[in-house]
Amino acid sequence: MYRDCHSGSADDLLPKAYLTEDSGDSRCITIASEDDWINLGILIVQLYADCFGR
């Protein structure tokens, strides 16, 4: 289960989520690195091409 979390630091500009482990422990993780954004953009372009490009 993911939910937003913020530490109040400068890193708050990065998307973050609490990752709840199977054990019930939660830790705050950054869910989007620069590479993740690039990959997401490529995926969206591919989906768009599949839907509208044919």
Describe the protein in words.
With 54 residues, the chain is α+β, with helices and mostly antiparallel strands. It has one domain. Helices cover 35% and strands 22% of the residues. It has 1 helix and 3 strands. It has one helix at residues 34-52; strands spanning 2-3, 16-20, 26-30. Strands 1-2-3 form a 3-stranded antiparallel sheet, with no helix packed on it. A hairpin with a 5-residue loop joins strand 2 (16-20) and strand 3. The protein is elongated, with a radius of gyration of 15 Å.
| Secondary structure tally: strands | 3
State mean pLDDT (0 to 100 scale). 65
Category by helix and strand content: alpha+beta
* Estimated share of beta-strand residues: 15-25%
Could you tell me how far the N terminus lies from the C terminus, measured between alpha carbons in angstroms? 36 Å
Q: Give me the Rg, rounded.
A: 15 Å
- As for the number of domains, it is 1
Largest sheet data? 3 strands, antiparallel
In helices, the fraction of residues equals 25-40%
General shape: elongated
List unreliable stretches of 5+ residues.
Answer: none
Written as H for each helix and E for each strand, in order along the chain, the element string is EEEH
Secondary-structure blueprint:
Layout: E1 2-3, E2 16-20, E3 26-30, H1 34-52
Antiparallel strand pairs: 1-2, 2-3
